Amino acid sequence: MLHKYPQGRSANFPALLENRPVVGKIGRFHISQADFARAAQRQRQNMAKYLNPLVVAILMTLVFGSWVFYRWAWQPDWFGRLPLNLVEAFDLFEFGSTMTLLVLWSIVAWQRHQKQLAPQVSVDILYALSPYDFEHFVGQVFRRKGYDVTLRGRSGDMGVDLEIRKRSDNKKAVVQCKRYRNTVGPETIRELYGTMLHERVAHGFLVTTASISKAGREWAKNKPLTLIDGATLVRISADLNLSPHK
């Protein structure tokens, strides 16, 4: 038995055209392997957020700084009565903490430097591309996601800008690239659906620099369509370390 997912939502490129077997059930809801994978990914992202080197460095600096102030500025009486070996242990702890903080802050500085060197991409940058360059860029995104891509965006393309095939199963899908400013409505999505049926493929992608209207998303529900708006495309490009100028 296969679990059918609702289509027509902005997604971080779901596993297109793949069968998703049900591996569990909670109440009336079927839980697939993809659901478990997404839940695990969210958990890893939450852990990464709290284990961020900057957060750890700030917390350690506050704790260690408080201890140093307490010991050397406050100079508690009990500390002077400790055995020599314990005092040496505290000294060793302070030295180790200092070295650890130096390493952590070095990592933070390196990450900030790498972030500044990362390719920049925004909706405005993508919109400024020519139609051909935008199609080429979207093709690069799909290639990074494991697809073979053929550009068809010329006269007589029958509404197909890209023809893509998943390398894992060779199943074909079509992509329409819309370099728009205005919100994309149901008419454009119906056009993509008609093109998909005409091409006899199992899935269609709409990739745009604009936003997608609520009516458009509603129309695409329960259809084999994936809608990727400008904000989602920017986020995916950043995750792939990809920009139009790279």
Q: Tell me what the CATH architecture of the largest domain is.
A: 3-Layer(aba) Sandwich
Strand-pairing-aware structural class: alpha/beta
CATH fold-level label of the largest domain? Trna Endonuclease, Chain: A, domain 1
Q: What's the average pLDDT?
A: 81
Low-confidence stretches: 1-32
CA radius of gyration is 26 Å
Which percent range describes the beta-strand content?
Answer: 5-15%
* Strand neighbour order, sheet with most strands: 3-4-5-6-7
Amount of helix: 40-55%
Sheet with most strands: 5 strands, mixed
Shape: rod-shaped
SSE string: EEHHHHHHEEEHEHEH
Instruction: Give the terminus-to-terminus CA distance.
Output: 43 Å
CATH class of the largest domain: Alpha Beta
Overall number of domains: 2
Number of DSSP helical runs: 9
Q: What is the count of β-strands?
A: 7
Can you walk through the features of this model?
The protein is built from 9 helices and 7 strands. The chain folds into 2 domains: about 50-115; about 125-240, 3-Layer(aba) Sandwich (Trna Endonuclease, Chain: A, domain 1). About 50% of the residues lie in helices and about 15% in strands.
List the helices and strands and how they pair.
Blueprint: E1 22-26, E2 29-32, H1 33-50, H2 53-74, H3 77-80, H4 84-117, H5 123-127, H6 131-144, E3 147-151, E4 162-166, E5 172-178, H7 186-199, E6 204-208, H8 214-220, E7 225-228, H9 230-239
Parallel strand pairs: 5-6, 6-7
Antiparallel strand pairs: 1-2, 3-4, 4-5
Helix pairs in contact: 2-4, 7-8
